[in-house]
Design a protein that fits this description.
The protein is an alpha/beta fold and 574 residues long. Helix content is 43%, strand content 14%. It has 24 helices and 19 strands.
Length: 574
Amino acid sequence: MASSREGAPSATYQGQWVHSAYDPRQEARTWAEQQVGEWKAGELGVVLGVGLLYHIEALAQVNPHNSRLAVVVPDPSVLKDALEARPLGPWLDSIQWITGMPHEMAEQLASHSTSLRFFTYGPAARLHAEEHQRLETSLRRIVAAQTGGRLHVAVVGPIYGGSLPIARYVVRALGELGHRVTCIDHNVHHASYQAFGSHRDERSRLTVQSRFADVLSLSTIATIGEDPPDLVLAVAQAPLSLAVLQHLRKKKFLTAMWFVENFRHLTYWQQLAAGYDYWFVIQQTECIEALKRAGANQVHYLPMAADPVVHHSVMLTADEQQEYGADVSFVGAGYANRRSLFPRWLSRDWTFKLWGNEWDGAADLSGVLQRNGARIDTDTCVKVFNATAINLNLHSFSSLELDAHPDFVNPRTFELAACGAFQLVDERTLLPGLFSSDEMVCFRSPDDVPSLIPTWLKDSGGRRAHADAARRRVLQEHTYRHRMQDLLAAVGLHQPDRIGSILRGERSAAELKRRTEPATELSPLLNRFPSDRRVELKDLAADIRARAPGRELSREELLVLMLDSYRAETRDLL
């Protein structure tokens, strides 16, 4: 506790002020006024951050529409200290206090039949950042399970690279969930992009390729403008420039990026951080903090996954088993740490096969390299996974040893597991939150591997038990369907009146009729649609135009056409 210059009690945490050192009441009023602009009637306002309650008091006093207000209290002792620190008024009785473990608080919030509007008071919320993160994770999963409405999502893929198949998995997962998907596939332009790489002058090559990527950005805008989506979802390395992202925001499009990259190695996120409304990343604390410092507003952890349509157990012929099988295998590119460590793991006591490209110059591995280092397709990868007794999964690193920052889990971990394949994986800090020790075998040191290999080669039953358990875990929790449910739920939680309302099914014909019951003149327009069909202004307008020839339009129909015309004008993107 500390006194502010104005005289009111204030507080500090780890050397930083939780409330103003000068005038905490005025600071709280300013904060509250900034929050209420988005607070819609009927929404439950949920405050993260307790402090000395100045901000909650201010929010309660400017509460629009007399909406309900709840406060998340991970530690009741903090609330007790606040209640004892200063006199409080009758507004206190109108607050709902949410307490308990994170999953219990999530269940309490999810039990409300209304949408939630979150308000984070940063200086106080950082005291319980971890609990708030677990609360949101639990809440996202609850919301994802309750999803009833259908979105239109535009998925923007890269020109080439490792995230290209991931974009395709995302498209399939969204479609399986029942959403309408527009796939903007820039891989069709890969040959042209490569052709520009023939310029000998590096500056000229990079300039031309950059300008070509800008053209693809404009092409993306044109596609989006023809059929506006609810959400534009880009996958890592999608050719969307900051200028295009800013233009989309100006036109009220929501954008999200699933950055399926190591933020330390590929750093283009620094230029794009402020451009996307939402970032989803495969790393946690350091990555999230770095993106926020660079200007990102919403950053969420979303790990990799597998696609069971592609990654699954297969029956191999005798010839396939002969070609792809081995005691030990690895599939992947020739990063420095792999070139350094794999020769140390070769032995006459087991067979070793190395698959993939970028192994030029690795003379000590030439005897085990398959197909002269040619790139192999996904079907071949799956066959290798299934044919191998022990699949090595060594995460890439530019140095000669294990990754010095093992804070992400690569796609191969999930894909091997989905195939029912046994793997030895280098230890990762986030792996225990994804798989248990009964599902995944890890090694901490390169020196562990030569002893782990013969141990597990002798234990076929143990390998099978681990592989089966890991496969069950993937199918239960780690498919791209699960990831897309989580992603959309996260956006829906923070956009309760947009994405959230659609996911809750509030845009269906039946729900719109119920909500507009007093306006009976709208019923004939809505009756033309199936009760579970999502209906937007453009759908009403299209139906009216289709029925317009040869009859006089009603006043309501003319108003709908006028509004739709205005909507089209404001969405003119180019």
